[in-house]
Design goal:
This protein folds into three domains: 119 residues, no CATH class; 67 residues, no CATH class; 155 residues, no CATH class. The protein is 52% helix and 13% strand. Strands 9-8-3-10 form a four-stranded mixed sheet. It has a two-stranded antiparallel ribbon with strand order 1-2. Strands 4-5 form a two-stranded antiparallel sheet. Strand 1 and strand 2 form a beta hairpin. 16% of the residues are buried.
Length: 395
Amino acid sequence: MDFHNFDKLKFGMSLLPDDIFMRVDNNFFSVVKTIAGDSVVKILKIQLINSARKLLCIPYVFEFLRIDSEEVGAIKLESCFKSKTGQYVIKPGVQSSLLYLIDLLKEKLKKEKESTMNDDNQSYLNILTKEFLDNHPLLKSLIRWYQQMDVIENNNKNNKTHNFLQLFIDNLTNNLTRSPNNYRYDESMKNFALCLYILGGKQTYEFICLNLYGSILNLTTLGDLIKTSNMALNEAEFRFEYLPQLHSSFGFCSEDTTGVIRKVEYDCSTNSFVRFATPVTDGVPLSQCFQVDTFNDIKEIYDMSEQARLLNVHMFQGIHSDDNTTSIPRPFLLSAYGINNNFTALDVLQRWLYIYRNCLKNGVRVIDFSTDADAKYLSAMRLASGFLRRHQISN
């Protein structure tokens, strides 16, 4: 801002009353008339812009001049030039007066916000007396800790040791001053919540939520976050495309079943029902085979399909190829789906061959399969061992 405009604003600010943002109707228009003139008053009145806050919310005050009506026509004759082509051009004096008024109001609003912030800061300083801090030892410790962190950060700009701890404390304390429906979380806290849920499980996550209220997302919000990310696992889909991210060229695959409570759910992301016994073709489960579009589809699925009594899970364990034995790859969930007990050893073998070939396509060689002591699995393991030996010799 140049000195000329600064002087103009400084002079105009003296014309604005302290309660300008509280004034409406004639009390407001009297100030507008003093600063910008009668033409601007008429422009604001016809649009029912009767307060300073309304004026600052209108993106383009002259937009109404495009309207073809008798009321607007009278304003046009007074505030605009009419060209030979029939177009109306706002008179420079009217336009500059209105823009000047808006600049004054913006500057006034800015100064009021700064004044409010200063008052708040001063009120905090008045509250933080020695007696107040002695009565709140936690606050006293936090202030001392933040002072130490400032010294450390000033001495070492690259120190990131306590960054997450600061984010955690800031996020928690900020949420304590909000209503539960208005909790906000930093992106780092969302990632922390996901890791905690994956590594600690649901019970651990609920325990943290109950005892550190407002520190991490509730389970409903976390579920929505998982659904919108690429972490969601669809029933009967194999996640071979994620294998290269494990940085393992060799690994083991396992397959096992466990009993589950029969319960059918609707997956809105795939528009299909899950936890029915998944049909297989050549041993490979068919994903999203219970999609529905009408009520008759739902009835037919419930009449013709059996609810799954077992959950079949496929895991992959990579083998670290480096000499560093401290960095061990974590197990990876390859697929999961509901089944019944109507499968054969041949189905298991065909499924393992499918897994073996798709892992190979993604740069990972499966060197062995493991499972429990079920007779069908043991038969498949004997057949698979012979296949792997022949395949490795041929390669």
